[in-house]
Specification:
- The chain is of the alpha/beta class.
- It has a single domain, classed as TIM Barrel.
- The chain has helices at 3-8, 18-24, 44-52, 55-60, 62-75, 91-95, 129-132, 134-147, 160-169, 177-185, 187-211, 228-250, 268-271, 287-294, 313-328, 350-369, and strands spanning 83-84, 101-103, 107-109, 153-158, 215-220, 257-261, 278-280, 299-304, 336-340.
- The chain has a 7-stranded parallel β-sheet, with helices on both faces.
- α8 (134-147) runs parallel beside α11, α9 packs across α11 and α11 (187-211) runs parallel beside α12 (228-250).
- The protein is globular and about 60 Å long.
- Bound molecules: coproporphyrinogen I.
- Coproporphyrinogen I (1CP) is lined by residues 36-41, 50, 55, 84, 86-90, 102, 104, 107-108, 156, 158, 172, 219, 221, 342-343.
- Residues 36-41, 50, 55, 84, 86-90, 102, 104, 107-108, 156, 158, 172, 219, 221, 342-343 line the site of coproporphyrinogen I (1CP).
Length: 370
């Protein structure tokens, strides 16, 4: 066994396994809850670390990544049921040989994006994730120890389509004209690129689980830009491949996996049979609709509009209560993990986050108790 596998056997015992039980479809005494992008700019303690260090420097320094991952766990002590490792989806394009900068106020920028299929020659032929991204595995192992079993640790990657979008657009242009040109004008090269990205994602997820991640999430944040047919060909095919390959490579050590294909409401049924244990929902589909489509095959995660947290605390409580009740709809055995429908915004008041978490605890516990 590798050094990771050796270390993993000595991890502290998990004291709160609500998230993992909910993911596997087991009964929980209340809904587990965590927040996409919970470690980040809405926290003053994060901004303090960020003022002293470059974004990717934090990712690459296990001590800093561990510190930042634990910030929301410590601040909302006992209220969060998961930690998610501090990193970014864009470490995959970096491993493939593209330069990525994090420009404050603008998000990620790739100064030399892929323009035509000829540019695929610029990508690293065969990526060794242990050479390029070992720091992530080290950060995960260190964080898992530092968590001391308080909550499970989630590892993640970006979905291949979303990563291809960044690699071709060069930033989050929110227009997708360049990457759409690729799929319509160069479909074969697009598939070559998506497959290359997928191979790295598989290795990266397997490595994260072996390093100590207890659950894995794939963020396909821009999948909703595709037509249903193109989603199937350019996104779903690779998402399914990731779940299959990661689970078979991990074998008996497989961990639950979540897929988040934002705005791809039309694909909900397909996603619920794509090999993932959990489907993370954005706010554009109602819990009632999601229940009726997924029929208990998977655990549903989500889906409060992140903008609700910008309103008053009374609104946060009311909206959260309505969401939780609708997910359960009177059925205590509903497979459910509470979350937002997308990442938390940077200007959210911290008290509203606490109100969201406390409301999920209170309302879901009440429902399950009956
Ligand atoms: O707490 C956590 O959730 C862990 C850290 C995390 C995660 C899961 C970060 C830190 N990024 C991500 C995933 C990620 N990154 C996604 C998928 C989830 C989502 O859609 O929100 C995407 C699309 C990115 C790309 C990215 N990186 C963006 C989005 C740009 C856009 O177009 O909206 C941004 C702003 C970043 C930078 C970033 N990543 C993470 C943080 C805290 C930040 C802020 C950068 C800073 O501190 O300057």
């Amino acid at each position: 066994p590798s050094s990771f596998e050796m270390t993993s056997k000595r991890f502290p015992k998990l004291k709160n396994d609500l998230l993992l039980r909910a993911a596997r479809g087991e009964k929980t005494e209340r809904a587990p809850v965590w927040i996409m992008r919970q470690a980040g700019r809405y926290l003053p303690e994060y901004r303090k670390v960020r003022a002293q260090h470059d974004f990717f420097e934090i990712c690459r320094t296990p001590e800093l990544a561990t510190e930042v991952t634990l910030q929301p766990i410590n601040r909302f002590d006992g209220l969060l049921d998961a930690a998610i490792i501090f990193s970014d989806i864009l470490i995959v394009p970096q491993a493939l040989g593209l330069e990525v900068e994090m420009v404050p106020g603008h998000g990620p920028q790739i100064p030399h994006p892929l323009v035509t299929p000829k540019d695929l020659d610029r990508l690293t032929e065969k990526v060794d994730v242990h050479k390029e991204l070992q720091y992530l595995f080290d950060a995960i192992t260190m964080t898992r120890h530092a968590l001391n079993g308080r909550v499970p640790l989630i590892g993640f990657v970006g979905g291949p389509w979303t990563l291809m979008s960044y690699m071709v657009e060069g930033s989050s242009t929110k227009q997708w004209a360049k990457v759409k040109t690729w799929i319509f004008k160069y479909p074969e090269a697009s598939h070559d690129l998506l497959q290359k990205i997928t191979d790295v994602c598989v290795d990266l997820l397997v490595g994260q689980a072996r390093a100590g991640a207890q659950m894995l999430q794939v963020f396909d944040s821009w999948s909703g830009e595709l037509s249903p047919r193109d989603f199937e060909e350019f996104a779903l095919y690779y998402l399914t491949q990731i779940a299959d390959r990661v689970k078979s490579e991990l074998g008996v050590d497989a961990v639950p996996m979540t897929v988040f294909a934002k705005n791809s409401w039309y694909a909900l049924e397909a996603l619920s049979t794509s090999g993932y244990d959990v489907v993370s929902l954005d706010w554009t589909q109602s819990p009632t609709y999601a229940r009726s489509v997924t029929k208990g095959r998977v655990t549903m995660q989500g889906n409060l509009d992140p903008n609700v947290l910008l309103a008053g605390q009374d609104v946060v409580v009311e909206e959260t209560e309505t969401m939780v009740k609708e997910f359960y709809s009177g059925d205590k055995s509903t497979r459910y993990i509470a979350n937002l429908g997308h990442g938390i915004m940077q200007n959210v008041p911290v008290e509203n986050v606490e109100a969201f978490l406390k409301t999920v605890h209170r309302v879901s516990r009440q429902i399950v108790k009956g």
